[in-house]
Every structure is written in structure tokens, then in C-alpha cells.
Write a structure and sequence with these properties.
The complex is a heterodimer of chains A (327) and B (145).
Chain A: H1 2-21, E1 36-41, E2 52-60, E3 68-75, E4 84-85, E5 88-92, E6 98-102, E7 108-110, E8 113-117, E9 124-132, E10 141-150, E11 155-164, E12 169-177, E13 183-185, E14 190-192, H2 194-199, E15 206-211, E16 219-223, E17 245-249, H3 255-258, H4 268-273, E18 282-286, E19 291-295, E20 301-311, E21 316-325
Antiparallel strand pairs in A: 1-2, 2-9, 3-8, 3-10, 4-9, 5-6, 7-8, 10-11, 12-21, 13-14, 13-15, 15-16, 16-18, 17-19, 19-20, 20-21
Chain B: H1 2-31, E1 51-57, E2 70-72, E3 77-82, E4 92-97, E5 102-104, E6 120-125, E7 132-141
Parallel strand pairs in B: 3-7
Antiparallel strand pairs in B: 1-4, 2-3, 5-6, 6-7
Chain lengths: 327, 145
């Protein structure tokens, strides 16, 4: 009886081995007839006004069936100046570089539509589309319809979206310098010198300074004008007295602000959820790649300041800001 | 007939007996009652009750200590000096305790240490839940010269 079961198991095992070892021969896939298309979104993270949303739109048909005549993208909200559909199809060479080959005339944008008319006899192309987000799209959502037309009369289309457009703003690489342009305005997302700060006193939210004080670690600091304890040697311009709330952050290297390899994105919702209760109005010992959440005195704006770079010798800080109006 | 008997004996030897032993062990383990406390933590026989390490983090989850905290397990005190400019209202203390011990009250958010005259206290409870020792955390701030 036992022998019978052993034999059965052995046969089953052999069957499994034979099946596992069977080689499946590769065969080239057969291209489908007719005009085909596909699309991917290449940009990641929140979509912000003034920035691009990038797509790659691929279209092809069998050479025997004709050639591509035109490609078109239609957005639900017309893109800002700088919106275009590439007239080059790219391939990646052996060095990993993208090489573009022109396949038609430069794109023409009319209202919500952007069109490239093909001039080369081509049956396959991948065109990139750059949609520059316009001001009127702020806080709304945008959809896209990509379409292509072939010489045999066939047309195809591909819908992409909806994509939400963030309400926040962004400003990159502002340079603050101790003793010079050191007055930071979240409202204007700008850095002013003393004269500029005096002229915009109500809008100055932070003062940048760098101090080397023996016995303590002070270094680079972003301090509210109201907190003079942490503004040694600073004489504030007349009227500069705001007390913004500040929360230090570390390891929060927003990809759009830092432009580093980290896949972290700060979005509108992060500003809405952060709690500034009990937050202080100063931040000292700020380091490169650190960050600072800020709420303006009137609570109108919330911002995240990312420290891109600090220079101890020049007493400088390069910072980038994302800001949302919350009131 | 004889072969069948031998096979049955071998089966009994290599299969039935070990199976019965394993099932018996599992049943015994399954039925043993380990006591747990109100937090669902195991109550053990350990009576040790002390803090082995102490950390204090700022809102950016970086340490604010200027040096290692001084833990006196006899006096039941922890003395920690923090950097000049530390926001004392938002600090996250972290205690390392002896094995099986737990802390009361639990630390679930940032703690306000700004009232330096009234230092914060936490009680360490031993693994057997019979020994309780209250530690006082004294925070001092690095002063500007």
C-alpha cells in the first residue's frame, strides 16, 4: 500500500520536473494592425502654476498601412506660454543620451489645442508634450486628450488625467546674506535688504543671520523680527516687527525645492494639516538640507523653506520656498 | 504478512510516535497561561527597575542634548543639558528601560519642558509589575557667554 503511494508521488514529481524544464521558444510579437497609441506622464509630484507637466505620447502603425500625418493634444484649460508638443522623436543611444530626430514642423498651439504636423515619412514616433500650467488652472483639475492621425485616414486618441493643480506657489534659490539682503518676506516670497525691508515692513517675516558665538551653537538662523533675543547685533529697519511661527524640520527634502534624489513632495494638504500651536518664533543652527515650516503673523500664509546651501565664510544661505495662502 | 508487520512497526516508530510527542508539546504550550498586564504586555519575573539611557529630541527629531544625559539610578534623576535656543515647549523624551520594564505615563507626543522649576516625572515599572521607581528629568539650557 505504502509502496503504491511512493510510486504515485514519484510520478507526480517527475511530471513537475519535466514541465519546469520545458523550454519555451521566444517568438517576436506580431504588430497589431491599425494605428496604435500610448501615453505616459513623466513628471512626478504636485503640479504647480508656472511649472510643466510632461508627457510622452507614442503612436505607430505598420509601414505597409501608411504613415503618421499629425499629432495633437487638447487640454481642458489652455496652457500658458511655453506649452508645446515636441516635433522630435527621441531614441536613447548607446551612451544613454536621448537623441532627437525631427519628424515635423514645430508645434502650433491654438487655444487649448497643440498640433504637430508631420513632414517626414514615419510610421512610429514618440513625442513629448510640455504643458506649462497657467494661472487660471490654480486649484482646478486639467485633463488631456492626445490624438494622432494616419495617412490612411485612421485616428486614435488617448485620455490622460484628471490632474489636480496645486494652489501653492514656489520660488527657488533665493539668496540671503547676513548684514545685506537678509530680510525674508513669505508674502512676497522675496529677500530684501534694509531699505527694501523698511519699504515693506509689514511683509517681513524672517531675518537671516549667521553668528559664531563661542560656547554655543548659533550658526545660520532664521528668526522672526519680534524675537530680538536671537537677533544679536541686528538693528531692525523701522516697522519690521512681525512674529511668525516656525517649526524646524530635518530629512524633509522636497524634490521640487531640493532637486535632489529624494522622492518627497510637499503638497497643499501638508500646509493645511500642520499644527503651529506652541511653535516658537525663531530657528537657530539651521543646516544645509534642513527645512523650516513658517506661518506668517496674520496666519494668512504658510510656507516651507528648504535650505539648499549655506556658506559659513560668506555668511550666506540659499533657500527655496513653497507657500500656500490658507486664509 | 510479516513484511506488513515490519512496515507498520517502522511507521509507528518514525511517524506516529514523533507526531504524538509534538502534538502533546503544542497542547501543553498552548494551554500555559502567561499573565499580561492592562496594556497587553507580558508580566515576567524580572524585578529590575531602572532607566538605562535617555534621549531628548527637538521638533525636527534631532537630538537637543549637548552631551549624554546623566542618569542617577539611586537618586532616580536624569540631568540633561540642551543647546542654547532649544524650544523647550516641544521636546520628545525617549527612555531606554531595563528588559521587560515599562513607563508611566506613556509618551505619545511632544512634551512641554519649559517650566524648569517643576521638572517632569516618569515612573518606571518593573517586569513583574511590583517595583515602581519615579524618575525626575532636570533640563538645563546651555547659556550664552
Amino acid at each position: 500500500m505504502l509502496h503504491k503511494y511512493y510510486s504515485l508521488i514519484l510520478v507526480l514529481l517527475l511530471a513537475v520536473f519535466i514541465t519546469a524544464c520545458q523550454e519555451e521558444e521566444y517568438s517576436l510579437p506580431t504588430a497589431e494592425s491599425g494605428l496604435q497609441n500610448d501615453c505616459i506622464k513623466r513628471t512626478l509630484g504636485p503640479n504647480m502654476v508656472g511649472m510643466n507637466i510632461e508627457f510622452a505620447y507614442a503612436m505607430a502603425l505598420l509601414p505597409s498601412e501608411g504613415k503618421i500625418v499629425s499629432a495633437q493634444v487638447e487640454a481642458t484649460i489652455a496652457g500658458a506660454t511655453g506649452t508645446y508638443l515636441e516635433n522630435k522623436s527621441y531614441y536613447t543611444n548607446s551612451s544613454g543620451q536621448d537623441v532627437g530626430i525631427a519628424i515635423g514642423d514645430a508645434s502650433v498651439t491654438t487655444g487649448t489645442k497643440t498640433v504637430v504636423t508631420f513632414t517626414k515619412d514615419t510610421c512610429a514616433a514618440t513625442l513629448r508634450y510640455y504643458y506649462r500650467i497657467p494661472e487660471e488652472a490654480r486649484g482646478k483639475s486639467v485633463d488631456f486628450i492626445f490624438s494622432a492621425k494616419a495617412s490612411n485616414g485612421q485616428t486614435v486618441s488617448y485620455e490622460m488625467g484628471s490632474y489636480n493643480i496645486a494652489k501653492m506657489d514656489m520660488k527657488l534659490d533665493l539668496l540671503a546674506k547676513d548684514g545685506a539682503a537678509c530680510y525674508i518676506s513669505i508674502t512676497d516670497m522675496a529677500v530684501y535688504d534694509a531699505a527694501g525691508a523698511a519699504a515693506n515692513a509689514a511683509k517681513i517675516d524672517l531675518v537671516y543671520l549667521h553668528r559664531l558665538i563661542s560656547g554655543i551653537t548659533f550658526s545660520h538662523a532664521l528668526v522672526s523680527p519680534a524675537n530680538t533675543e536671537y537677533l544679536p547685533g541686528i538693528t531692525l529697519p523701522s516697522g519690521v516687527s512681525n512674529s511668525s511661527k516656525e517649526i524646524k524640520a530635518w530629512n524633509l527634502r522636497d524634490q521640487q525645492l531640493a532637486r535632489l534624489q529624494y522622492g518627497i513632495f510637499i503638497d497643499d494638504v501638508d500646509f493645511q494639516q500642520i499644527d503651529f500651536t506652541n511653535a516658537p518664533n525663531y530657528a537657530i543652527n539651521m543646516k544645509a538640507e534642513s527645512g523650516l515650516w513658517v506661518e506668517t503673523t496674520d496666519g494668512k500664509y504658510r510656507a516651507y523653506i528648504f535650505v539648499n546651501k549655506v556658506d559659513d565664510t560668506k555668511k550666506e544661505m540659499t533657500l527655496s520656498i513653497k507657500r500656500l495662502q490658507v486664509k | 504478512m510479516l513484511m506488513k508487520k515490519i512496515k507498520y512497526r517502522n511507521m509507528k516508530k518514525y511517524f506516529i510516535i514523533p507526531t504524538v510527542i509534538i502534538i502533546s508539546i503544542l497542547s501543553w504550550v498552548g494551554c500555559t497561561d502567561f499573565p499580561i498586564d492592562e496594556d497587553g504586555l507580558l508580566i515576567t519575573t524580572r524585578a529590575q527597575c531602572y532607566v538605562s539611557n535617555f534621549e531628548l529630541l527637538g521638533v525636527d527629531y534631532q537630538t537637543v542634548r549637548t552631551a549624554s544625559a546623566v542618569i542617577d539610578t539611586t537618586a532616580q534623576t536624569i540631568n540633561v543639558n540642551v543647546f542654547y535656543g532649544t524650544d523647550l515647549k516641544n521636546l520628545w523624551p525617549q527612555f531606554s528601560l531595563v528588559t521587560d520594564a515599562k513607563l508611566d505615563p506613556k509618551i505619545t507626543s511632544f512634551t512641554d519642558f519649559s517650566d524648569l522649576a517643576n521638572p517632569k516625572q516618569w515612573t518606571v515599572i518593573s517586569g513583574n509589575r511590583k517595583v515602581r521607581k519615579t524618575y525626575t528629568v532636570f533640563v538645563t539650557v546651555q547659556q550664552k557667554p
